[in-house]
Amino acid sequence: MDFQTRIPTVAVLGPALAVFALVALIRHRRDVPGWRGGPLVLRIAAALYAAAVASLTFFPLWIYGGSYRNQAEWIGQIQPVPLLMADITMIPNVIMFMPLGFLLPLFLPRLGRGRTVLVCALVSLGIELLQLVQYIVLANGRAVDVNDLIANTLGGLLGYAVLRAAQRTAATRTVLERVTPG
């Protein structure tokens, strides 16, 4: 049976964000610590950021079957050699992960540079592996590229550096302390 189905971004991320909004509202009304004022704003920003990353990396979700199914071997979808195909297209990946490197230490203040970069690398690896699973299971044409992993990790490091630079000035440090949960 030949078929192709498109699951739009809003069909998945819309309800996910609605559930987040409901949880945030309930926690805000119950006066749960970290769910008022600046920390709530930070949590909303993080949720919107996560939805944006998911939207860019997984959606729209295409499912193919029969003769529409991509016939290429899954192993051919992996680019394991670093920087072999490096070009300007890596810049959006760097930019995409800068907010993660910035936000992580705000949620977990004891997280240093090394662990922040490690978490960014692991999140990036998770995205690449999920894209591979999407390709294998749904035959949707997603490629897995070690350059994405490198660019995303670099973006996390740059985001961390921007946060630390911002924390050096009194005015931005005060604002950042107001939004930090806990």
Automatic annotation (TrEMBL):
Residues 47-164 form the VanZ-like domain. It comes from the Bacteria. The keyword Transmembrane helix applies. The chain crosses the membrane at residues 6-28, 40-63, 83-104, 116-137, 149-166. It comes from Streptomyces stephensoniae. InterPro entries: Teicoplanin_resist-assoc, VanZ-like. This is VanZ family protein. The lineage of its organism: Bacteria, Bacillati, Actinomycetota, Actinomycetes, Kitasatosporales. Keywords: Membrane, Transmembrane, Transmembrane helix.
